[in-house]
Design a protein that fits this description.
Two copies of one chain form a homodimer.
Chain A lengths: L2 H8 L6 H10 L1 E5 L4 E3 L7 E7 L1 E7 L5 E8 L3 E2 L2 H6 L5 E5 L3 E7 H10 L2 H26 L2 H11 L9 H8 L3 H11 L2
Antiparallel strand pairs in A: 1-8, 2-7, 3-6, 3-8, 4-5, 4-7
Helix pairs in contact in A: 2-4, 7-8
Chain A binds a DNA duplex through helix 8.
DNA sequence: CGTCTATTTGAATGTACTCAAAAGCGGTGG
DNA sequence: CCACCGCTTTTGAGTACATTCAAATAGACG
């Protein structure tokens, strides 16, 4: 039942059967119904989540009450508000399930225990943070230099297959455009 | 001569005089002339830089050859292409001096040695990475939800006093607008 | 002082937004 | 299983934000 997360670890580090067992024994396991929250603005993010199936989103709510999607997390992605989780400070973002979703989670204290038990994991999570950094940086570059249409194409490439699973209004706020404009763009391009 | 960098460390960790000495002894010291590069697209970023005085910028060059400023680093900031530095992979970005600049630098191997000598530094650099994450996340949110004018105001707040030191075209590409539009905006608002 | 680059200005254009209305779709209860 | 309600998507007209291009002006630097 935890094949996916183990194969995810295997992308960056080799684990012995014993190490795998140690890790699995520390994992919490949980299902979240559609539209339910794993984290709300103002709370401290106490867990890092691995999505086994389903899909999460992280979003920010501005002064006007408009939501802006920062990131999607379909199966095989790791979700958390990095800053809140590692610094143990109130999150500015929300994390919500877009579908019925199953996650494995690790609290910060369990993660730190695991780091002493399986030191290789330090490397894994460092890479994870770096990849997150990379993703954010690419996003900034895309927002600075690309049109909405190019960003849309990039979204489809990054989250291949996800488009048909989530509402267009969510894709629109991820791209930084209005749902109306996304709809028009799709029609024009026959996408 | 290294007061600024020591006060920078002191923002997050307390160091004994001995620890300070160990750190200072590992620092490289260097001056870079205006318009010179510390890192070019495709190279591996071998150092993390602390700006003692002067100003650096990190920018990305797209297919058309247009430059997009990702970040500025005036005095008391740490500059590096995080992903390239920690993963030792070719950088997609450039780092260049906008003014005659003095930096202290640490190679990855020296940094790792320092981590064993002064373990507190692990905490410091973890916070540094988290702050970088935070900055990037705010930038994404700003790009998704704010107008050019609001982003401009945010830039002036974040980099207080920097505006008068650097070319407007650099501010424009940081904001994701054209120099012409920035000029018009400034005039209209009497900013 | 001259050259080169940066900034300003203006007109025409394009990209994306707002608002409002209509159509589509999904879930829920009878 | 159908009908209805609420939310999402589509469509269109009018508008605002930001761009391009070009020319004029101002600044920086050798």
């Amino acid at each position: 039942m935890s094949e996916l997360i183990l194969s995810n670890f295997a992308m960056h580090i080799d684990l012995s059967p014993e190490e795998k067992m140690r890790i699995v024994s520390r994992l919490q396991h949980r299902k979240i119904g559609k539209r339910n929250f794993l984290l709300r603005q103002g709370e401290i993010d106490r867990n890092i989540y691995f999505v086994n199936w389903g899909c999460l989103r992280m979003f920010y709510t501005d002064q006007d009450g408009s939501e802006h999607n920062i990131c999607f997390y379909p199966e095989n992605w790791w979700a958390c508000d990095n800053v809140s989780f590692f610094k143990e400070t109130p999150a500015v973002n929300n994390i919500q399930a877009l579908e019925e979703t199953e996650v494995y989670s690790l609290s910060l204290s369990n993660l730190e225990l695991l780091f002493t038990e399986v030191p290789k994991l330090e490397r894994f999570f460092r890479i994870l943070v770096q990849n997150g950094f990379d993703l954010y940086q690419n996003r900034i570059i895309a927002n600075l230099s690309k049109t909405a249409e190019e960003r849309y194409v990039e979204f489809r490439r990054l989250y291949s297959g996800l488009e048909s699973r989530i509402a267009q209004k969510h894709i629109a706020t991820y791209l930084g455009i209005t749902p109306a404009f996304l709809s028009m763009m799709r029609k024009k391009k026959g996408l």
